[in-house]
Amino acid sequence: MIAFVRGPVAAIGVDSCVIEVGGVGLQLFCHPGTLAGLRPGQEARVSTSMVVREDSLTLYGFADDDEKQLFELLQTASGVGPRLAQAALAVLSPDQIRQAVANEDLAMLVKVPGIGKKGAQRIVLELKDKIGLPSRSVSGRPLQTANDWRAQVQAGLIGLGWSARDAEDAVIAVSPLAVDQAEPSVPDLLRAALRTLSKA
Known about the structure:
Layout: E1 4-12, E2 16-21, E3 24-29, H1 32-35, E4 43-53, E5 56-62, H2 65-74, H3 82-91, H4 94-102, H5 106-109, H6 117-127, H7 149-159, H8 164-178, H9 186-199
Parallel strand pairs: 3-5
Antiparallel strand pairs: 1-2, 1-4, 2-3, 4-5
Helix pairs in contact: 2-3, 7-8, 7-9, 8-9
């Protein structure tokens, strides 16, 4: 298995990036919070998890090992595949997921697109004894500059399946939250945008 990759960032897309390793470009599928911390041309170390299917080998990338471990653990729950596990980490931090499972907070889990009440109940039932308690030492997510958070949040929403129009409306709705921030947090704004869309 490939535990992590290190190398210059060759490209950043809507839901993935390309890291050059030994002259080979590896595509890593990442949620917007991870992509927000990458810059084209700069070297990066990205924790990875490989998902093997009969017809494909797919690498998913994460900002740190904690996110990677939660990604892999979430998939042990019935009905949770890699895309849904990644969507969960796009909306909730690892500690928020642990807290939600420990407290059986279904309302928190259903904020994730694709997780309904029954799915949240399954996650709590199957992971409560495995997921552990929130850690106080989990580092914050990377911040994005004030000028490009809108594009990152919109791209993230589209990558999670929302239409371009819905994504644009959600970005407009959460814009007031970023007004007083010198460096708006893309993951926090993405979560706020998703909450806005879930109420629509």
